[in-house]
């Protein structure tokens, strides 16, 4: 787990952003039903939080990284699906 926390370094450098750990699974992270692409999801988050909100600022700062990671994951899933056929 600590290794994965190093990826939060750039986001944690933003004033007002905090990282809090807990031992429960977030409901929304598992049961989110609507299918949005990464750009739509980021736009939705940015609309939901005011511009000066730590969430909005963190998402704006991390957007290129988030988009790249999501697209890489989708590509890998697509490659795995094609390899299995």
Query: Helix and strand string, N-terminal first?
Result: HHHHH
The main sheet comes to:
none
Mean pLDDT: 80
Q: Which structural category do the helix and sheet elements fall into? A: mainly alpha
Low-confidence stretches: 27-31
Q: Helix count? A: 5
Anisotropy-based shape: globular
| Cα distance spanning the termini | 33 Å
Q: How big a fraction of the residues is strand?
A: under 5%
Helicity range: 55-70%
Radius of gyration: 15 Å
List keywords for this structure.
single chain, 85 residues, mainly alpha, 5 helices
Could you please describe the fold and organization of this structure?
The structure is a single chain. This protein has 5 helices and no strands. With 85 residues, the chain is mostly helical. The protein has one domain (2-84). The termini are far apart. Residues 27-31 have low confidence and may be disordered.
Briefly summarize what is shown.
By secondary structure, the protein is mainly alpha-helical. It has 5 helices and no strands.
